[in-house]
């Protein structure tokens, strides 16, 4: 790369940040489908297909994320990718599930509002993976790295994923890792946004999968993990063999799955149990119950001579009884017989034992297996919750819902009805919050809006769950209650009751089947076995068998309930349970701020290259993406109440916030308007409703959030700067004072150095920390172990040339606590190279020399060096001399002479001459051992801000502690600013306590809190006797017009009396009436106390109400220096009110003259007066005006030049 005909210099410096980094990948389609030019289902499908084929599986619809399953690893979940999304809003990065997690986490912390992330879609669309990635992101960014308890919580939350996947997921035709249960994980956070606990709620475990699967599907993963990877002791104790040995794992003829390593997954499952805190005895009990289920599946029934069921292999039953710790005969009887009890008139009747046939016995066996697994799964979830339980106060939470999606099979039964019902409820939430509720909110808030039509699936939810008129669940329960003995009779009763739904347009009854028109499509359900599955009750014989177990885990943990024979209450059915849990879930979700991940399945073959347009189009239609885009484009991206908006963004407007404090005293709606107008947000970007503010585009709210973040960043920077100044400022100022003492008024000064308050910071190139160019310098220097850098700066060094005069050459000067390093920078092959040209130990430096003029040269006299002395030109020459003198403990002295004699190479003495030359505009000019320099300020001039005279170090000493704040419940709020109560000159208003708007109390009922000093503006202690300069104190105060006779005395500057008028001894006319008494000399302003102020702090003075204080000096930070009762100290300005003392009474009129005394006195002509008497007053007036004008001009000149005061 070339520039201006030369090769660009390459240095070892960090690469410049490039905003295009996120756009390097070729963008295909649109990342936010609200930007589509044509809003149709086909256009959405086409955009998703283009992005999916390009590897972009995520797309936005506003804040809703659309995810299309890639069926392959795209490498988009690495730590680097995760870090890149941290702290970014949705528009700053490409669409990603990490962005949704970041938005939810940021919203939770920023607005202190509970969040929920609803993940929905079909089975195999990627819901479980999305939930895992959200949990991964939250665990990574939620802080608490040094807190072992926080980290332990994170580990346990992440460990729930593999554990619940093993027990709750299985291989299906559509998905190799299909969730066969629903899970809602609530992660609990403390006020700092750190996870402190979690709660998992389980929904709809598909327990029928335990006893049977269709071909090419599998049972739950844990059965294959255990049978393939069980340790030797489990195999011996539980008789475990391979999965092919058990009916429950082999009947579907699918033992292995591509991409799933059951042996490795078993080790991960065990590790997860240990992380969550399961004891070894608890783990043994879990795997023992799994072995019992597997062996129960191997119980085979045959028909005996009576046509009843009998067990073909009694040894299997004996081994199961051994594991259950029950009697073998009791187990045999429970599996092949059923105890029946007759009732007469509500009283218990006879008890009979009814033998079962083979089909009935198999059903009892399967019911026991399903019940054991369901109870075991619920126990694991409850045990996880015990480990994750937090007993303290929870501030906020983020909920992640992962529940299996909509299902349509060839044979759909009770399980599919429940699953699809839950998905209908989730779709209803989406409609309520994104479509229906949004439009209703616009109407209620009187926002201009064009209504958009959409399908509301509430009618389908009512069809399933409603009681009046009865829905499908109500008909099921009635059928189970009236025909509970015979399952087929109950099914027929259910079919008859479905006749009440014939008029519903979303329902059709077709013999022993019925059809429901769901939002996702029409589903035909089979009535056979529906009522039996709805009963969800275990036979009393099996419950009694489990209760008799000597294993407390079985009898006390899994089967702890006991049946009350006298109870007439109908036990809840499966539909009752799913309805109750689903409504509870909806209630939880509606109380949170929602985020949505809508997953789409591109094909049914789990192929990473096949995109089935027809299949995806159907999902786009029933998900309502087209309507979602229309509502999003026509509506507002953000809305919140006036109070929350002002509370969030009051910092961005000086009328509502100052220095982090809330100072707005108006209503919240006016505060919103003030903030929006102050930040120049166009009126077309927002609307104010009756209770809420609406922001149209997300870019606007992101910009406000960015401004808010920058505000806090700037405040933090100011606080850090203030802390650094207080920590090191005194040391640097002391070093600067030592430098001035080292000069000893022997050298002319730069004008700007006299008004400067620059500290001798030393390491200006940051060589000590090695940042930027400092790293290159540090790498070049060969620093010893204990060698520390104390000074670094650019300079010029006088370099000899062969047969020619020496010239200044650029160098880098570094002073350590041992040596002086002079580094040379050169360019070689287009690359910067640096070398340590000279290393001069302090022991080799004999002395230093400077001239008496205001030049920037300093000479290092070395002890018999063959290279000669070192001549350096640096604007910080005083600081260089000071560091060398301090580092050498005063052994290196400084000589200040009119001419400097130094040794050239070889020891030849040479004299450098210094002459004044006013043609040199700035700095100095060197040529042939002569330095020409303009005249500087006198050597006796004093610098501003030195420690010996009004030093800035003392002005920046830590402020005295202000009045101790009252509790928030008792802390008064300052009264409103008024015309008779001046505020500090910087515009500071008394802050409201608590950072929230509070109605102003009466002025006599409370007192304001003294204002907090703003960063960078500190009130000095009064005891030091040093007062900070008041801005504009030296400016002449405007005077009121005065008469010509008094002008001389008024205009005269302080310290100079006006020339007395010429006296005249000749007689005059009678004097006129006496003038009014002259105004009193303008003294220091007086203020009256509005409230009492008590303080025991040093430097502060206490006073009572109505006390009159004399203000010595007003500081901008709200603390004024006052004098009261002979004491001087600091007082809060917003406790005071300006006070004007009463004017003294005028002089009494002179007595009337007696008759005959009114004789005219002779007058003298003006021309006959002495010249001195005539001209005395005018000359005094002229000189006073001239002095005042000169002083004002000089002050303005100094102020104009004040920007360049950093050089010394």
UniProtKB/TrEMBL annotation:
Residue ranges of the region described as Actin-binding: 582-604
TH1 domain ranges (all copies): 749-944
SUPFAM superfamilies attached to this UniProt entry: P-loop containing nucleoside triphosphate hydrolases (SSF52540), SH3-domain (SSF50044)
UniProt feature, compositional bias: Polar residues: 1036-1049
Cellular localisation: Cytoplasm, Cytoskeleton, Actin patch
Primary subcellular site in the record, as a coarse category: cytoplasm
Record GO biological process: actin cortical patch localization; actin filament organization; endocytosis
One Pfam entry name: Myosin_head
Acidic residues bias (residue ranges): 1198-1208
InterPro entries membership: Kinesin_motor_dom_sf, Myosin_head_motor_dom-like, Myosin_TH1, MYSc_Myo1, P-loop_NTPase, SH3-like_dom_sf, SH3_domain
Region feature (Disordered): 929-1093, 1131-1208
A GO MF term: microfilament motor activity
PROSITE patterns assigned to the protein according to its UniProt record, in alphabetical order: MYOSIN_MOTOR, SH3, TH1
Gene Ontology CC, one term: actin cortical patch
Keyword Heme: no
Domain of life of the organism encoding this protein: Eukaryota
Binding site residues for ATP: 121-128
Domain Myosin motor, chain residue ranges per copy: 28-709
Keywords for the protein's UniProt record, in alphabetical order: Actin-binding, ATP-binding, Motor protein, Myosin, Nucleotide-binding, SH3 domain
SH3 domain boundaries: 1082-1141
Family: Belongs to the TRAFAC class myosin-kinesin ATPase superfamily. Myosin family.
Protein name: Myosin-1
Organism listed in the record: Hesseltinella vesiculosa
């Amino acid at each position: 790369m070339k520039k201006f005909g030369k090769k660009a210099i390459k240095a070892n410096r960090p690469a410049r940040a490039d905003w295009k980094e996120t756009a390097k990948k070729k963008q295909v389609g649109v990342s936010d489908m609200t930007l589509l030019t044509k809003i149709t289902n086909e256009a959405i499908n086409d955009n998703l297909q283009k992005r999916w084929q390009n590897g972009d599986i995520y797309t936005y619809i506003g804040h809703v994320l659309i995810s299309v399953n890639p069926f392959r690893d795209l490498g988009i979940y690495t730590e680097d990718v995760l870090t890149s999304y941290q702290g970014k809003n949705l528009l700053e990065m490409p669409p990603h599930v990490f962005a949704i997690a970041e938005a939810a986490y940021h919203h939770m912390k920023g607005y202190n509002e509970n969040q929920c992330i609803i993940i929905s879609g079909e089975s195999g669309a990627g819901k479980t993976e999305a939930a895992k990635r959200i949990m991964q992101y939250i665990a990574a960014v939620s802080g608490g790295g040094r807190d072992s308890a926080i980290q332990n919580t994170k580990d346990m939350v992440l460990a729930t994923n593999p554990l619940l996947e093993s027990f709750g997921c299985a291989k299906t035709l559509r998905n190799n890792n299909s969730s066969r249960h629903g899970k809602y994980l609530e992660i609990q956070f403390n006020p700092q946004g750190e996870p402190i606990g979690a709660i998992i709620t389980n929904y709809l475990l598909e327990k029928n999968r335990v006893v049977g699967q269709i071909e090419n599907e599998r049972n739950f993963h844990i059965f294959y993990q255990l049978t393939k990877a069980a340790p030797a002791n489990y195999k011996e104790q539980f008789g475990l063999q391979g999965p092919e040995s058990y009916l429950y794992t082999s009947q579907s003829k699918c033992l292995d799955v591509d991409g799933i390593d059951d042996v490795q997954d078993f080790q991960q499952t065990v590790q997860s149990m240990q992380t969550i805190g399961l004891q070894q005895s608890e783990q043994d009990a879990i795997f023992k119950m799994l072995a019992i289920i597997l062996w129960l599946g191997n119980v085979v029934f045959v028909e005996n001579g009576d046509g009843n069921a009998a067990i073909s292999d009694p040894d299997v039953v004996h081994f199961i009884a051994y594991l259950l710790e029950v009697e073998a005969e009791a187990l045999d009887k429970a599996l092949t017989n059923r105890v029946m009890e007759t009732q007469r008139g509500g009283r218990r009747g006879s008890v009979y034992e009814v033998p079962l046939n083979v089909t009935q016995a198999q059903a009892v066996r399967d019911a026991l297996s399903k019940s054991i697994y369901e109870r075991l799964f619920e126990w694991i979830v409850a045990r996880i919750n015990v480990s994750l339980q937090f007993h303290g106060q929870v501030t906020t939470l983020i909920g992640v819902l992962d529940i299996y999606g909509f299902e349509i099979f060839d044979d759909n039964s009770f399980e599919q009805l429940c699953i699809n019902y839950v998905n209908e409820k989730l779709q209803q939430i989406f409609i309520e919050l994104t479509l229906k509720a949004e439009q209703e909110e616009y109407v209620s808030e009187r926002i201009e809006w064009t209504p958009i039509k959409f399908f509301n699936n509430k009618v389908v939810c009512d069809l399933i769950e409603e009681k009046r008129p009865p829905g499908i669940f109500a008909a099921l329960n009635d059928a189970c209650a009236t025909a509970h003995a015979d399952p087929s009779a109950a099914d027929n009763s259910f079919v008859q009751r479905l006749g009440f739904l014939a008029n519903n347009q979303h329902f059709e009854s077709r013999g022993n089947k019925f059809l429901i028109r769901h939002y996702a499509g029409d589903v035909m359900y089979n009535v056979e076995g529906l009522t039996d599955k709805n009963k969800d009750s275990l036979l009393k014989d099996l419950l009694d068998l489990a209760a008799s177990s000597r294993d407390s885990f079985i009898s006390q943990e899994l089967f702890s309930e006991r049946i009350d024979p006298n109870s007439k209450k109908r036990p809840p059915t499966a539909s009752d349970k799913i309805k109750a849990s689903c409504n509870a879930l909806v209630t939880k979700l509606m109380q949170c701020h929602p985020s949505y991940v809508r997953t789409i399945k591109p094909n049914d073959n789990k192929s990473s290259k096949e995109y089935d347009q027809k299949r995806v189009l159907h999902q786009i239609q029933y998900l309502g993406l087209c309507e979602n885009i229309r509502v999003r484009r026509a509506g507002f991206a953000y809305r919140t109440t006036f109070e929350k908006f002002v509370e969030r963004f009051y910092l961005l407007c000086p009328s509502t916030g100052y220095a982090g404090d809330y100072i707005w005293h108006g209503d919240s709606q006016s505060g919103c308007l003030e903030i929006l107008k102050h930040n120049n947000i166009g009126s077309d970007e927002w609307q104010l409703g009756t209770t809420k503010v609406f922001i149209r585009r997300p870019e606007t709210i992101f910009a406000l959030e960015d401004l808010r973040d920058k505000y806090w960043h700037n405040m933090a920077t100011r606080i850090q700067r203030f802390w650094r100044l207080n920590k090191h400022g005194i040391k640097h100022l002391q070093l600067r004072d030592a430098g001035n003492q080292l000069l000893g008024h022997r050298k002319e000064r730069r004008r700007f150095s006299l008004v400067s308050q620059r500290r001798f910071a030393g390491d200006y190139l940051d060589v000590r920390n090695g940042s930027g160019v400092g790293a290159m310098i540090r790498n070049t220097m060969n620093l010893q172990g204990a060698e520390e850098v104390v000074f670094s700066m650019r300079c010029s060094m006088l370099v000899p040339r062969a047969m020619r005069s020496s010239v200044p050459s650029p160098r880098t000067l570094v002073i350590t606590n041992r040596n002086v390093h002079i580094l040379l920078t050169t360019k070689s092959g287009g690359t910067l190279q640096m070398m340590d040209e000279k290393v001069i130990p302090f022991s080799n430096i004999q002395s230093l020399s400077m001239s008496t003029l205001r030049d920037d040269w300093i000479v290092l006299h070395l002890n018999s060096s063959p290279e000669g002395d070192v001549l350096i030109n640096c604007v910080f020459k005083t600081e260089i001399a000071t560091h060398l003198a301090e580092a050498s403990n005063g052994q290196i002295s400084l000589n200040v002479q009119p001419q400097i004699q130094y040794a050239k190479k070889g020891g030849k003495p040479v004299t450098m001459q210094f002459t004044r030359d006013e043609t040199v505009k700035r700095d100095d000019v060197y040529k042939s051992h002569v330095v020409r320099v303009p005249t500087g300020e006198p050597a006796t001039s004093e610098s501003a801000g030195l420690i010996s005279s009004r030093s800035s170090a003392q002005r920046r000493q830590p402020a005295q502690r202000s009045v101790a704040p009252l509790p928030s419940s008792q802390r008064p709020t300052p009264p409103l600013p008024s015309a008779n109560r001046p505020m500090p000159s910087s515009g500071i208003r008394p802050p409201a306590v608590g950072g929230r708007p509070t109605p102003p109390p009466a002025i006599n009922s409370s007192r304001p809190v003294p204002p907090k000093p703003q960063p960078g503006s500190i009130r000095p202690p009064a005891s030091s006797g040093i007062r900070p300069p008041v801005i504009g104190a030296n400016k002449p105060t405007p005077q009121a017009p005065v008469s010509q006779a008094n002008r001389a005395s008024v205009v005269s500057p302080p310290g100079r009396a006006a020339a007395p008028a010429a006296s005249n001894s000749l007689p005059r006319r009678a004097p006129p009436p006496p003038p009014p008494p002259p105004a009193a000399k303008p003294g220091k302003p007086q203020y009256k106390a509005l409230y009492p102020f008590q303080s025991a702090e040093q430097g502060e003075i206490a006073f009572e109400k109505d006390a009159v204080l004399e203000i010595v000096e007003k500081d901008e930070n709200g603390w004024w220096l006052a004098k009261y009762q002979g004491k001087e100290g600091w007082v809060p300005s917003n406790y005071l009110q300006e006070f004007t003392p009463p004017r003294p009474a005028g002089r009494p009129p002179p007595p009337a003259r007696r008759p005959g005394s009114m004789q005219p006195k002779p007058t003298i002509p003006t021309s006959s007066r002495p010249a001195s008497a005539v001209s005395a007053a005018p000359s005094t007036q002229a000189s006073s005006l001239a002095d005042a004008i000169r002083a004002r001009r000089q002050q303005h000149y100094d102020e104009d030049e004040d920007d360049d005061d950093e050089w010394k």
